[in-house]
Amino acid sequence: SAQAFEDRGSPAPRPPSQSPRLGAPSPAPMAVRVQFESSSEVGVFARLTNAYCLVALGGSENFYSVFEAELAKHIPVIPTSIGGTRIAGRVTVGNRHGLLVPSIATDQEIQHLRNGLPDGVKVQKVEERLSALGNCIVCNDYVALVHTDLDKETEEVIADTLKVDVFRATIAQNVLVGSYAVLTNQGGLVHARTPMADMEELSQLIQVPLVAGTVNRGSDLIGAGVVANDWAAFCGMDTTATEIGVVENIFKLENTGASMQSALIDTLM
Fold first, then answer.
1. Neighbours of 114 (CB within 10 A)
2. Distance (Å, whole) CA 166 – CA 23
């Protein structure tokens, strides 16, 4: 059964201009721990952007309700399967402009997504051999890093649908950029053993600060352990207080002092 509890320091006040929806009050930024059944790989079962959140069908009601409690006032939280599977986070990729689904997605699922998503979000099916799109692509609202072997056509579809600049890249010599990085418009978390030179180069390329780190008590699979947007993040239940401090820091979910202080207190307790 899923459990969830929150780790909050004193949240930083947000200027109204950064509110996810006009007129909606800004949510208090934070990182929340959650698990899907007994798995801490939340990024496998959920896909979070600034405009919507997809969560896996099935599993326990609790997983969905954690996301709903934090997000539903601001963005739709849509339970869905993709090609009959529950790994929605690994086979889809998206941002506030669009959502890419793999060729295994059924017409019924695509219609369900279109019905639930905000009007401005375009859903596009991608005929790509590397069908775990979430493992092969990582993006925010402005740039995407993609697997070096992705088809040229797919690259064009990404640029058109998500309205991003597309760069072929590796992270710590690994082509699965979506597995080893999470990006928002605020910052990015990458594989713990990413060389400093690579991080600087990538940071220049995508124009957001990057930090190397782990989730779920030392896991390098950042994409599987965390989902984040510009004002919220969800990490696996195994994530330590120190790791949460790093997540909240890089994604600017909290003022630094409070975050590291709560992390230290949590660690000492």
1. 13
2. 32
Q: Left, alpha or beta for 178 (phi > 0: left; psi -120 to 50: alpha)? A: alpha
Burial code of 140-158, b = ≥16 C-beta within 10 A, e = fewer?
A: bbbbbbbbeebeeebbebb
Residue 264 sits at φ, ψ, to 5 deg, of -65, -45
Q: Is the pLDDT of residue 3 over 90?
A: no
For residue 68, with 0-12 CB atoms within 10 Å meaning exposed, 13-18 middle and 19 or more buried, which class applies? Answer: middle
Locate tokens 């005929």: which residue? 127
Quote the CA–CA distance of 50 and 75 in Å, as a whole number.
Answer: 8
- Compare 259 and 120 and report the one with higher pLDDT: 120
Q: What is the pLDDT of residues 22-54, one digit of tens each?
A: 444 455 567 899 999 889 999 999 999 999 999
Write the pLDDT tens digit of every residue in 138-183. 999 999 999 999 999 999 999 999 999 999 999 999 999 999 999 9
Please report the pLDDT score of residue 137 as a whole number: 97
Is residue 138 within 8 Å of residue 169, measured between CB atoms? no
